[in-house]
Amino acid sequence: MNSYPTIEDAIGNTPLVALQRIGAQQSAARGNVILGKLEGNNPAGSVKDRPAVSMIRRAEERGEIKPGDTLIEATSGNTGIALAMAAAIKGYRMVLIMPEDLSIERAQTMKAYGAELILTPKSGGMEYARDLADTMVSQGKGVVLDQFANADNPRSHYEGTGPELWEQTGGRITHFVSAMGTTGTITGVSRFLKEKNPNVKIVGAQPTEGSRIPGIRKWPDEYLPKIYDASLVDELVYVTQNDAEDMARRLAREEGIFGGISAAGACVVAQQISEREENATIVFVVCDRGDRYLSTGVFPA
């Protein structure tokens, strides 16, 4: 009998593509190349597919959860969608808590995978959602995998995303740019790349004051993800909401890359790096797909 791959086997090994128009001429003149890692090609449409499956698989291996259990998670969207998919694959009840102002496409996708949603007030942001998840666990209503403190989140990028980037660039990567939300991607990739070459620069994209960019957060100190290791990030660059949204439209129109707003924010930072560096191989994470944001009005109707 033939052994065929499952949907779980389709996670990872995503393409790495060069920008051909946006900043390409200026980059080439300086000997630079800007590359986007297309994480929207994962089955549930984002980079979060990697840690979602990793967190459930490792928790099962440790005997902390078993199929049929209830999992609870606070999410701004992509992790929730990925966990909903992973729960469907592995047979768990999934309860997701998210602020009410996040895009309707995300909520609908989570429900399509069979997850149950609890919407929290916009005014409370992700902090309120995280507190509610902790309260529900203390009431015995389920188990929280906790993407913000779970070492299996960055581990998935240390074992997957990082090695892929090293191989895909032939070890030539000089700069890695990632939006910072849970910080799992930037932490795990940085740890791997710096073991290979300590001179690789790791740059985090964060929102300017007042900007609301889905997937990019500047956390208050008391909510800073426990998995975050500041020593692994060489530079923080702040991005405005307007710049990120404008770049999202440009990426779609000029490159054919239909990515989300945080992905575009990382691209803005990659462009800035290219303007100051020479002979650089700059990679940014296209962490999800743009169709997840159509109802937000970022893309013209």
TrEMBL record:
Cofactor requirements of the protein: pyridoxal 5'-phosphate
Gene: cysM
Domain Tryptophan synthase beta chain-like PALP, residue spans: 7-288
Family named by the database record: Belongs to the cysteine synthase/cystathionine beta-synthase family.
Modified residues (N6-(pyridoxal phosphate)lysine): K48
Keywords: Amino-acid biosynthesis, Cysteine biosynthesis, Pyridoxal phosphate, Transferase
Enzyme class name: transferase
EC number: 2.5.1.47
Coiled coil: none
Descriptive protein name: Cysteine synthase
Reactions mediated catalytically: O-acetyl-L-serine + hydrogen sulfide = L-cysteine + acetate
The organism's taxonomic lineage, starting at the top: Bacteria, Pseudomonadati, Pseudomonadota, Betaproteobacteria, Burkholderiales
UniProt-listed GO biological process terms: cysteine biosynthetic process from serine
InterPro entries xref list: Cys_synth (IPR005856), Cys_Synth/Cystath_Beta-Synth (IPR050214), CysM (IPR005858), P-phosphate_BS (IPR001216), TrpB-like_PALP (IPR001926), TrpB-like_PALP_sf (IPR036052)
MF GO annotations: cysteine synthase activity
Gene3D superfamilies: 3.40.50.1100
The protein's annotated pathway: Amino-acid biosynthesis; L-cysteine biosynthesis; L-cysteine from L-serine: step 2/2
Positions with a binding annotation for pyridoxal 5'-phosphate: N78, G181, T182, T183, G184, T185, S262
SUPFAM superfamilies: Tryptophan synthase beta subunit-like PLP-dependent enzymes (SSF53686)
